[in-house]
Each structure stands twice: as structure tokens, then as C-alpha cells.
Amino acid sequence: MRYRTHPKTGDKVSEIGFGTAYFYEVGMKEGTRILRRAFERGINYFDLATSDIATFAILREALHDVRKDILLQVHFGADYSRDAYGWTLDLEKVKRSVDVQLRKLQTDYIDYGFIHCQDELSDWDIYKNNGVLGYLMELKKSGVVRHIGLSSHTPEVIQKILDDADVDMLMFSINPAYDYHEGAYAIGSVDERSGIYRRCEAENIGITVMKPFSGGQLLNAHSSPFGVALTPYQCMKYALDKPGVLCVLPGIRSVSELDMLLDYENQSEKALDYSVIGDFAPQDASGKCVYCNHCKPCPVGLDIGLINKYYDLAKAGDVLAVEHYKTLEKNAADCIGCGHCDSRCPFKVEQSDRMKEIRAYMESI
Ligand code: SF4
Ligand code: SF4
């Protein structure tokens, strides 16, 4: 398992995390077995936006003895007063629900306490006015919550909340369908969505990824909006390539599914190449580098995807990205303008011109 270090909190997060959406359905015995195996194979990050309260007891049973070695995202706004998941902005319900989750998990702290599922600006106003944010911040002050998170599907709302609150982790729905205007949570333009990734990276906010397969839609040629099935590995790589992303959180409900997903770490570059989506890039994505490196090999050995990522981040105000760029062994100044990348890029990026632009920008700052 590979781990990514959260730039602000220092937590080492497994690239593959564990989503528990419908996990409770597997029951206590099988659930314990799956979670234990996940932990033993290196998964240390678990999201608890789950559809039933039964999940918490299964997680406690499986991982109570290793609590200090795992990281839990708990959602302030998920209501389990009727056992099944409900969404609430009511302070008393949030308090009761968080209490019951802590009791069921038999833990006295939460690694990432999340401002839960804010998709409308009006929800955010109510969340603050009802005192839910205040309660979350109180728990942070007292040490029950270590870090603050935010989950949302809506770039506009995310921008507002990041302006208002000191957030350490964002859970966002990232996959090629949503980024290209396809599917239930395809909210925001290509630029608005990539603006979120860049802002998070620039402000040291980690991103955990929900719905990496668009609810399974992308894995089947009949349901894929692109008319071709992607593999889970292509989807995971796509999400993990985005600036700011620390971890993908696929929902897991069996040992075989878990083992299949963990095999991501053994896939070849070819198997992870998701450039096929370039054929379907909408107009507002055309000509924009997605850092996939499908255009490799560059004859002078440039890491074209990485150079482009640093450039985009630098323009978004990320000072560290400029530093990273300057430490590269080879950068845009080494480009010989051969045009190989132009002919290879499925996203219609005129990369040889872009290299000139990157060079000029980086030399000007
Ligand atoms: S130029 Fe095209 S192929 Fe190369 S990294 Fe960017 S998007 Fe991928
Ligand atoms: S144009 Fe520049 S970046 Fe592209 S392949 Fe040639 S040398 Fe590499």
C-alpha cells in the first residue's frame, strides 16, 4: 500500500481507503473479516457516512484494538436516530447522533469530524445558525475532534465554506463522468471543479474521493456515459492524479472486492492509462491537461503531467508548487518542441506551445 501524507495534519493516509455506504448489509461476522483484512493489507482510512448504524459496531469489533493506527471520518449531520441514515441540520439530532457513534465505536476521539453533505448555500447558513458548526469547533477545541472535514458535491458551496471555515479535509465526488458533465453529481463546469482541486492543494487541504466509479456507472459499457467501460483501476488513477487528492474511498462489501481493488497497486502504467476518456472530453475540457502522461515518452525525458500540474497550481497561488517545479531535474526550459506530445494527446492539448508558456511563466516569477 502506498501512503500520502496530509500536508497540514501530517497524517499518513492510505491511497485506497474504505467506504462503508452499504457495508452493514454484510453482517457482523463477514464485515469483521473484511475490515480486518483491509487493515492488515494497509488500509488505514475509513469513511463512516454509512447507510445504517449497524456499521459502527462492526467496525468496533474488527478494529477496536488498532484504533490508534486507523483514521476515521465521522459526519456531523448524519442522523442515525432511526438506525438508517438520515440527513439533518438540527443541532440536538447531530449531538445525539455523534454521541451514539462514539459509543458504538467505543472511541473517545474522531480523527476527521466532517461538516456533512453541504450541497446548497442555504444549508450552510442553517448549519451555522443552528450551532452545528459551533458544536463541531467546540469538540475540536476539547480534543474530541482532531481535524475538520467537509463533504459536498457542489463546487460553489465548497468555495464558500472554505472561505468561512478552517477545513483540513474535503470529501468530494471525483470521477471522469462528473468532471465531464455526466451523471447525478456532475455539478459545476470543468474549470469550477478543477478550481477546487487546485485550491485544496494550494491551501494544504487534503481530498478524499467519494463515488470514484460514479456509483458503478463507469464500469459498464451500457451505463457508462462514454459508451465504454472503464476499469476500477483507471477510475482510481484518474482521481488520485488530481491535485490535493490523498485517498479514494470505494465502497467495499466482500473480500474478493477488497482484494481486487487492492490489486491497483500492482497495475502496469498501461492498465492505469485512462486517456480513452479524451475522446469524450466536452468543449470546456478540450485543450486542458489532465496530467495523465499518455503523451509519454518525451524524447528529453520531461514528466509532462507533473510539469503541467505544478504550472496550474502555481497559477492558483501555490508557492510550494513553484518550489517543486524548480527542483525538477528537467523542466519546460528543456523542451525541444518536437511535437510528439501534441500528436499523442487525446485531450487536444497543444503541449509544445504550453511548454513555452510554462517556461515563460516560471522564469518570470
Ligand atoms: S498533454 Fe495530454 S496526454 Fe500529456 S499529460 Fe496532458 S492531458 Fe495527458
Ligand atoms: S514537445 Fe517538448 S514536451 Fe513535448 S515531447 Fe517534445 S520535447 Fe517533450
Q: How is this fold's topology laid out?
A:
Layout: E1 3-5, E2 12-14, E3 18-19, H1 27-40, E4 45-47, H2 54-63, E5 71-76, E6 78-82, E7 84-87, H3 91-105, E8 110-115, H4 121-129, H5 132-142, E9 145-152, H6 155-164, E10 169-173, H7 176-179, H8 190-202, E11 206-210, H9 232-240, E12 245-248, H10 255-262, H11 269-272, H12 304-315, H13 319-327, H14 340-344, H15 351-364
Parallel strand pairs: 3-4, 4-5, 5-8, 8-9, 9-10, 10-11, 11-12
Antiparallel strand pairs: 1-2, 6-7
Bound molecules: iron/sulfur cluster (2 copies).
Quick overview:
With 365 residues, the protein is an alpha/beta fold.
The CATH topology assignment of the largest domain is: TIM Barrel
Give the H and E element order: EEEHEHEEEHEHHEHEHHEHEHHHHHH
Structural class by sheet pairing and helices: alpha/beta
CA(first)-CA(last) distance: 37 Å
The main pleated sheet reads as: 8 strands, parallel
- Would you identify the regions where 5 or more consecutive residues have pLDDT less than 50? none
Judging from the principal axes of the Cα atoms, what is the shape?
A: globular
CATH homologous superfamily placement of the largest domain: NADP-dependent oxidoreductase domain
